[in-house]
């Protein structure tokens, strides 16, 4: 069947007819659209249709896949199939460059080569599988490129945990964001879904076909469960508990601080956080001190902040020196990534680590912290966390690896366990609930 996507451009004919849900997306006029949909929904297809629909004379459009190879394999042929040969002015298979007879240029790009994305004003950009790209591609390159021509952007993808694609979804105007699940769209036949379900783990299936943002393959802290580890109704931390703080300094990235308390059973509660980008150490230090938490120890600071790599009046100094000059002396944290992650996992498993509900960034990072995707050829390479949105995760690691001090129960009060033991001795074994 042949359909015409754009009444003004009757010559661009596409041999596939948009499905109703694709039609819905094509008809939107919003400047930012976020489309989350299951695998094989037709996201890439509809995105290319959208570009062709908008392919005005002298227009300029980018389609960006996570890698150049993916752009070539997934989208190049698809795009050529959609454009009748007589509409093509010239094309370049290597640069994935297509110029239409109306001098509109469509280029396919890979997010793995950010430099190839710089320097042109755009009328529109599609960011395909944004969850697999570094978010700075959008914030630092594509968004600025759209300002001159008031261009549009379309984010498409399947979820990979609560990462920047999820944030993008939340930040998009409600009328221009969509989640389409395989169980609702009827695009993939039921038998095929059943087959996929049998082959995949439940988490994987829910992510790929039901667009579930909670779980994802590659998540580092799978042990982190919202209903177990998040304290929805924060309480006042007892003064007799041990209290500390951990700082991860970022000059361009946010500076993150996590405050924690340890109870008499050695359970660690992260009860407050600080997460601010682009400020001086002095401003950070003032904000941290203003919290007035009565800490029992000096904060731990990311060890790289102790490098004396700044100069002033011929004196070399470090970020740590600067924190100290501003009233916060710190100790260097231990930065063994693997050991730290394993210890944090143990703490989560043993229900010894909790996060107060007010620590939104910390919770988000716990849910989205993930391993770097390994290239197919490199399956034996050691696992490495993806260095995106991991600042508070570093803080948690530093804290747990420092073996947070478990306070002794104060002498003046009776230990509740002892009290319960006495009660048990008195009431006898018949009482089932002595330990509750
Ligand atoms: N409207 C349509 N009509 C027929 N086939 C379609 C349509 N939209 C997509 N397809 C086909 O469905 C398959 C998956 O599409 P694709 O855009 O790659 O999905 P996604 O990017 O969501 O995984 C492709 O083979 C594509 O040609
Ligand atoms: Mg696709």
What is the secondary structure topology, with strand pairs?
Layout (H helix, E strand, L loop, with lengths): L2 E2 L8 E2 L5 H7 L5 E6 L5 H11 L6 E6 L2 H15 L5 E5 L4 E4 L4 E6 L13 E5 L7 H12 L4 E6 L6 H8 L5 E4 L1 H4 L4 H10 L2 H7 L17 H4 E2 L10 E7 L5 E9 L5 E10 L3 H10 L9 E2 L8 E3 L2 E3 L1 H7 L5 E2 L4 H13 L3 E4 L3 H9 L22 H11 L14 H12 L9
Parallel strand pairs: 3-9, 3-10, 4-7, 4-8, 8-9, 11-19, 12-15, 14-19, 15-18
Antiparallel strand pairs: 1-2, 5-6, 6-7, 12-13, 13-14, 16-17
Helix pairs in contact: 1-2, 2-3, 12-14
Task: Give the CATH topology of the largest domain.
Answer: Rossmann fold
What is the averaged pLDDT score? 88
The number of distinct β-strands equals 19
Shape: globular
- Please report the number of helical segments: 15
- Briefly, what CATH class of the largest domain? Alpha Beta
Uncertain stretches of 5 or more adjacent residues:
1-12
Task: Please describe what this structure looks like.
By secondary structure, the protein is an alpha/beta fold. It folds into 2 domains: 3-208, Rossmann fold (3-Layer(aba) Sandwich), CATH 3.40.50.300; 226-401, Nucleotidyltransferase, domain 5. It is 32% helix and 20% strand. The chain has 15 helices and 19 strands. The strands form 4 sheets. It has an 8-stranded mixed sheet, sandwiched between helices. A 7-stranded mixed sheet has the order 11-19-14-13-12-15-18. Strands 1-2 form a two-stranded antiparallel ribbon. β1 (3-4) and β2 (13-14) form a beta hairpin. The longest helix is centred in the first third of the chain and has 15 residues, at 68-82. 37% of the residues are buried. The structure holds adenosine-5'-diphosphate and magnesium ion (MG). Adenosine-5'-diphosphate binds at residues 16-19, 22, 37, 39-45.
